[in-house]
Amino acid sequence: MCTVCGCGAGEVNIGGAGRAKAARAQGGATRAWKAVNTAPPAVEGALPEPVSVDAREDTHIHSGDHHLHFGAGPAHAHAPGLTQSQMVKIERDILGKNDARADENRRHLAARGIFALNLVSSPGSGKTTLLVRTLTELAGRVPAAVIEGDQQTEFDAERIRATGVPALQINTGKGCHLDADMVGRALAQMALADESLLLIENVGNLVCPAAFDLGEAHKVAILSVTEGEDKPLKYPDMFAAADLMLLNKVDLLPHLTFDVERAIGYARRVNPAIEVIRTSSTTGEGIADWLAWLERGMAKARVSKTQASLGEQVD
């Protein structure tokens, strides 16, 4: 995951062109931020110096089936020059700070009865098109807003804004996922309505977003039928972290050899509790079920807000 991929060394832009920019400090183990063109960060957050590593510590080789497994150690990943213990420490540091910020976001959203979802998938799964269809269907019924995550451009945010729904773009630069601090900074710029729906479209990536809590109520994994039914087993962390899987682009099934039941079975092998809705933004199949799922979540968020408010009054 991101302890090894170099994510975080690039420039992050929240809010589109012309906005203030922030960049990750070098060696993003501390998730520190610095203003662009300011002094370099303190040494405290830097990665440890490279050391020699015995490859046997984190590499498992199956000679019979030509399989090299670089995720066999306790860090479940491999990086040249870092031992497994160093990687575990760095990962805990990153995720610990992220989780603390995510808890802040979650409390902020819950206090206002805002139902927030983190939409995750590989690139090209149809996330944005599904969002456009969803927001069009909800127009006039539900107040909504969107946070868009991409490495570059505002294309997706512009598509959302065309529906009349406000959208804030986060460009992650070299980063391969959103994190809780990015989302917290975005929330500070958005005038969200109480008891509204917030949809966060994460960067297209089935690996790193799985580990980073943004403060959402649920992760929703979108799997398109053009990707192959084995994705839940190839990328198990994402489907294990999700509460709902949208099996998308089902209108294309007559043209494919995709096995729907096998895909659902694989997802439930990883996560027995995962819910599944089959959707098509083109034909509208499953959209009513998806909207009903959203409305149930919003109702729960409203009830939780009311109960919390009554509890404060009693205290």
Automatic annotation (TrEMBL):
GO molecular function, one term: GTP binding
Alphabetized Pfam families for the sequence: cobW
One GO term (biological process): protein maturation
Entry-linked Gene3D superfamilies: P-loop containing nucleotide triphosphate hydrolases (3.40.50.300)
Domain CobW/HypB/UreG nucleotide-binding: 118-277
Keywords on record: GTP-binding, Hydrolase, Metal-binding, Nickel, Nucleotide-binding, Zinc
InterPro entries linked to this entry: CobW/HypB/UreG_nucleotide-bd, Hyd_mat_HypB, P-loop_NTPase
N-terminal signal peptide: none
NCBIfam families the record matches: hypB, PRK10463.1
Similarity comment text for this entry: Belongs to the SIMIBI class G3E GTPase family. HypB/HupM subfamily.
Stated name of the protein: Hydrogenase maturation factor HypB
Organism expressing this protein natively: Aromatoleum tolulyticum
Lineage: Bacteria, Pseudomonadati, Pseudomonadota, Betaproteobacteria, Rhodocyclales
